[in-house]
């Protein structure tokens, strides 16, 4: 296979490291698209346990448990993310499971305690995704204040600083605007391994505030679905913030993957998903998320330029363009890697069938293309990412 042309390799990502893959856990009803198309996916535990085992045997490194606290926009039922994540961890052997949590609905010290237990029980496979929040009603229905956009990210940054302190220090102290911790000692702590000193901390958000925060405190930055130009811009901004803080942040990209034997088949699936969209739910979701991001200081909040078609997949996953034959998708995945992406977070229409198809048909082509990356690129990338001491 021939590699597609690409921009110069990213200095924040080592091309010598294999791409990692994660999948969205369908612990919320309605699947990963707001559409009335048939979805052979179930939000219950038995289905998800089978899926988790299948995924770790088909090349997936991580699973991300979604979080919704109340029925909304095509998601009528939802299992809580941290407890569901622990259940999946105990059902698997290698898969790392990321639990999505909201500052404002969680106290960092309480989450730290839960995370330490989950990490001990899973032998170091627990992770967390700190979600600043887009759904105002989830906060107000529980009597919690709804902060404006940049304040939500300021709270999230303080939340992560508190979480890391409790996980790594014997007498944690924090005097913040949102959280106060006084001489708090957590025992047992999560595992400290050569791979990571504490559970990995992921973070989402597309805004300027989110990018700057990721550089200062997060281990991973998740982006909504993006094309090549969008990815390049975000990696540049996050890297600049991380460089200023003397840190390294890895980059994850959301994508909805439709792999079929022919491109025409894959395109027809996408056409049918959009044609059968739950119009009312998509418009409601669009109004909610645009309201949440509109108050960003510079107007660059998430979903601000999303079309109706984009919003049929909650996180703009169609934009990443992982739609076509296994060969087309593998080439596009590696092209994203060459631009600095370290991890692909994937959603599917029919999970069990498509995760297995990905592992059998797409992933081997990705690894083949990675092996063909020019030695000059590998050397340059490897030299550019010498380990930097992390600091919060």
Descriptive terms for the model:
392 residues, flavoprotein, Luciferase-like_sf, two-stranded antiparallel sheet, monooxygenase, disordered N terminus, 13 helices, TIM Barrel, disordered C terminus, globular, alpha/beta
Describe this structure in words.
One of its GO terms (molecular function) is alkanesulfonate monooxygenase activity. Residues 20-342 form the Luciferase-like domain. Pfam families: Bac_luciferase. This is Dimethyl sulfone monooxygenase SfnG. Keywords: Flavoprotein, FMN, Monooxygenase, Oxidoreductase. This protein is an alpha/beta fold and 392 residues long. The chain has one domain: Alpha-Beta Barrel (TIM Barrel), CATH 3.20.20.30. The protein contains 13 helices and twelve strands. The strands form three sheets. Strands 1-2-3-4-7-8-9-12 form an eight-stranded parallel β-barrel, surrounded by five helices. Helix 7 (228-244) links the parallel strand 8 (220-223) and strand 9.
